[in-house]
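sorry for the late reply, my laptop died twice this morning and i had to redo everyting from scratch. anyway the thing you sent over, i finally got around to it. pasting the sequence first so we're on the same page, its 291 residues, then the predicted structure underneath. double check i copied it right bc i was rushing
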Amino acid sequence: MTVPDLPQLQHQPPPQKKWPPIGPSEWNSFFNEQGELQDSQRTVMHEIFTKGLHPSVRTAGWEFLMNFHPWKFYKALNETVVQNPQVMTNKEVVLTRNNINTDVIRTFVGPGKPLCQKKRIELQRVLIATYIYDRVAGYQQGLHEMGMVLQSVMKTECNVFWALRSLLQKTDYTSIIDVGVMKSIKLLEKLIMFLDPKFHTFLYANCKGDLFFLYNWFVLLFIRQMKNNTEVLRLWEVLMTRKPCPRFHVFIALAILQNRRKHILSLPQDESSIITQVPSTLNPHEDTLEN
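ok and here's the structure:
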């Protein structure tokens, strides 16, 4: 099946101005001497969406984005629930805890560099607390990788817990298979069908009639499609502003597919090649990316 290329635009859009990220001085200007927000929340969200946050203010910025709760709640949750023998000996909880421990042990911060013991124990507690407290999210493979990335920003165990939970909520549980993943995939399918029907026909003819093989993009919120954690954090900042729309992550997935359209069409036209190679080879930072 031959699929023609999309027609090229006659006029290229003007280059977008790249703003420097929000640093300490600009961040502090959003608040008065009492630490109260003096600009509208909408204005600050727009600035974060447009510029991003400098690493020196990222922790404070994320606390703003995530509407953090106090340490006392997390401490109470651990003392009354997570450390409660009656809760933690429940068969389902025991099985989930074992799955969490297995996943965390296999979590690496870099090639051949596992998490240190302290971070590993903290991440295990955070994931167990998330599973106990947030029944919408529960636990699934992938949350341990998201938690590991969040540990690089949020310096305390309590803040990692709230950051993970807030990230899930701010993205409408997009990364949870039984809640948001299938909605995102269905919307992606509709967008491709509307914008590029020929490409949609090609994908469907070679992918069992759906795009579920791309589920890891949404489960991990594009961790493996970014070059490094810095770019992952910048992307997540954008998603947490919920601008320009709450489902912006679906348009990101669409952009990745369209950027690699020629590469996908060059793959052998069989189910195995498309389903196994497309998710692992699509990296928007590769030099071979089409413009």
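The mean pLDDT is 81.
thats about all i looked at so far, will dig more tmrw
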